């Protein structure tokens, strides 16, 4: 290893004194000015990971839905998936190391992971539209170059596009061409084929307003538009030409504040959606004729897509094992609808995309979406081969046509990661094929009233959970108290889980009315405060919000 080059470059990317960062599900994220050394070191780490896996590794410079002045970085593993846990720990150690420790940490990683130093290394680099991203991606390039790795700088891309291209590269382009143009062509062709059978009646059937969060999604949709069929009319808002990234707009803003983004006027019953800053999340919404806002979140997206796939599977007569993967935050109504009405098995995992993705891989077809709009569908190799074979060879017309629709659905979905562009096209295709309006989709089931709260405690580690974070194991007596409180309310549930980043406990409750959901959340918060070492003032009752159209009403809204 050329430690001289590593040290020489390292002197140009010094770590600020006293800064400590943690690599989480979203990689590293903080103020852009604190990240130069981290980017350089992630360039080094990507080279080692590439040599160890004998594959191309991705490095994406983005802070997703964070404010414009923040930035971040995440590494992409060979099949477009998130970085494996052991290497997340290396990333954290390397980012926090003092200058003189870098050499020993790199050597230790090489020994532990049997990294062959003369192995060819290839790194794909992408970035979002933040003012700081170009300079920071140059720091990544310095890291790759210091260890003699090769790189391809894709420049401005969405996060899912980089994941997709890494997967294409490492499957010898079996998954698709490892170019942005290849991504556009694959998705557009699948969308065109899938929507061929959609009824042509109702000219406004596929008219959609898209809030692009003043981010990369707008640039990429503009490039892609020429590939898309004319029957899909998209109107882009918050395209980054005037306002700041994620400022009062984007999927996260709409989800949390339960209102339309700035810069997008909605007429009654118009179908709208919002991407987040790096285009890996999507939520839909509309205003009804009375002017009330309705959010159609990740739970409803998962329900729409899984219902569509289940119906096609029944048509082709295949008994492929399909499941929807949720977290404890999924609304109880969605779980009930899937299990009882659609007869689709639902599995619950710990919070975090990595856990959902991992669980989804256990099935022939695994559908997962977090309520925030991040999700995708995974097809096993065997399921994909079976479907493609039927699309080609099946003699019976109806079965063959249904198999073709499934095949096009597979090609339209970005299986590597949640992808707002891909998910939007899947949703638009399904709505067109089923002749559904956004209101009819929203009416599939009604969300149970719910509430999220946070309780400050001295040490979040005192709370340990089990059963996919739905039950507390410690401290003693807490779960028994929650069970006792839940019994007081109809169709209710509640759970608590420690935050992954700060000394707070997150409380979630559901009940038959908003008043009861609020009351249950408050009582559980008090139990946490008294039994788990609460600090500061005891939690106060939240205002009772009786209308589902109040901005604080919907689940996933956090009252600090």
TrEMBL record:
UniProt function note: Catalyzes the conversion of GlcNAc-6-P into GlcNAc-1-P during the synthesis of uridine diphosphate/UDP-GlcNAc, a sugar nucleotide critical to multiple glycosylation pathways including protein N- and O-glycosylation.
InterPro entries: A-D-PHexomutase_a/b/a-I (IPR005844), A-D-PHexomutase_a/b/a-I/II/III (IPR016055), A-D-PHexomutase_C (IPR005843), A-D-PHexomutase_C_sf (IPR036900), A-D-PHexomutase_CS (IPR016066), AMG1_II (IPR049023), AMG1_III (IPR049022), PAGM (IPR016657)
Protein name listed in UniProt: Phosphoacetylglucosamine mutase
Single biological process term from Gene Ontology: protein O-linked glycosylation
Family: Belongs to the phosphohexose mutase family.
Record has Phosphoprotein as a keyword: yes
Root EC class: isomerase
Biological source species: Chrysemys picta bellii
Binding positions (substrate): 370-372, 497-501, 506
Cofactor: how bound: Binds 1 Mg(2+) ion per subunit.
Gene Ontology molecular function terms on file: magnesium ion binding; phosphoacetylglucosamine mutase activity
Binding residues for Mg(2+): 64, 276, 278, 280
Gene3D superfamilies in the record: Alpha-D-Glucose-1,6-Bisphosphate, subunit A, domain 3, Alpha-D-phosphohexomutase, C-terminal domain
């Amino acid at each position: 290893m050329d430690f001289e080059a590593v040290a020489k470059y390292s002197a140009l990317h010094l770590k600020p004194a006293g800064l400590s960062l943690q690599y989480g599900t979203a990689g590293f994220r903080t103020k852009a000015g604190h990240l130069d050394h981290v980017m350089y070191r992630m360039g080094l780490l990507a080279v080692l990971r590439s040599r160890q896996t004998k594959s191309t590794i991705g490095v994406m410079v983005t802070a997703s839905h964070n404010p414009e002045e923040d930035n971040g970085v995440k590494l992409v593993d060979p099949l477009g998936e998130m970085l494996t846990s052991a290497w997340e720990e290396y990333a954290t150690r390397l980012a926090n190391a003092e200058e003189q420790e870098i050499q020993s940490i790199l050597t230790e990683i090489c020994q532990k992971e049997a990294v062959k130093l003369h192995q060819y290394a290839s790194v794909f680099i992408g970035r979002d539209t933040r003012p700081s991203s170009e300079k920071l991606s140059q720091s990544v390039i310095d890291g790759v170059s210091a260890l003699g790795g090769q790189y391809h700088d894709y420049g401005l891309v969405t996060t899912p596009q980089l994941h997709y291209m890494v997967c294409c590269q490492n499957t010898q382009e079996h998954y698709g061409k490892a170019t942005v143009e290849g991504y556009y062509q694959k998705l557009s062709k699948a969308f065109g084929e899938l929507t061929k059978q959609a009824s042509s009646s109702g000219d406004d059937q596929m008219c959609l307003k898209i809030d692009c969060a003043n981010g990369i999604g707008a640039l990429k949709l503009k490039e892609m538009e020429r590939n898309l069929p004319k029957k899909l009319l998209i109107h882009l808002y918050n395209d980054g030409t005037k306002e700041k990234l994620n400022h009062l707009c984007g999927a996260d803003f709409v989800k949390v504040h339960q209102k339309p983004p700035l810069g997008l006027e909605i007429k009654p019953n118009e179908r709208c959606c919002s991407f987040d800053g790096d285009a890996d999340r999507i939520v839909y919404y509309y205003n009804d004729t009375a002017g009330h806002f309705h959010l159609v979140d990740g739970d409803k997206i998962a329900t729409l897509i899984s219902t569509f796939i289940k119906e096609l599977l029944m048509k082709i007569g295949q008994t492929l094992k399909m499941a929807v993967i949720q977290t404890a935050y999924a609304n109880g109504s969605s779980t009930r609808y899937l299990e009882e009405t659609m007869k689709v098995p639902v599995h619950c995992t710990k919070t975090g995309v990595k856990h959902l993705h991992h669980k989804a891989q256990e099935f022939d077809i695994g559908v997962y979406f977090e309520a925030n709009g991040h999700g995708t569908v995974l097809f096993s190799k065997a399921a994909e081969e079976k479907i493609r074979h039927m699309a080609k060879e099946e003699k019976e017309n109806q079965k063959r046509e249904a198999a073709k629709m499934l095949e096009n659905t597979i090609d339209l979905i970005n299986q590597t990661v949640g992808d707002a562009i891909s998910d939007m096209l899947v949703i638009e295709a399904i709505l067109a094929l089923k002749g559904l309006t956004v209101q009819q989709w929203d009416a599939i089931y009604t969300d149970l009233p719910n509430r999220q709260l946070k309780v400050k405690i001295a040490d979040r580690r005192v709370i340990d959970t089990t059963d996919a974070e739905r039950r507390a194991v410690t401290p003693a007596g807490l779960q028994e108290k929650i069970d006792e409180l839940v019994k007081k309310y109809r169709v209710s549930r509640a759970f608590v889980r420690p935050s992954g980043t700060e000394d707070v406990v997150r409380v979630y409750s559901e009940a038959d009315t908003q008043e009861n959901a609020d009351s249950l959340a408050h009582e559980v918060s008090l139990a946490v405060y008294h039994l788990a070492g609460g600090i500061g003032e005891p939690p106060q009752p939240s205002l009772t919000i009786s209308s589902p159209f109040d901005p604080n009403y919907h689940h996933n809204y956090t009252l600090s």
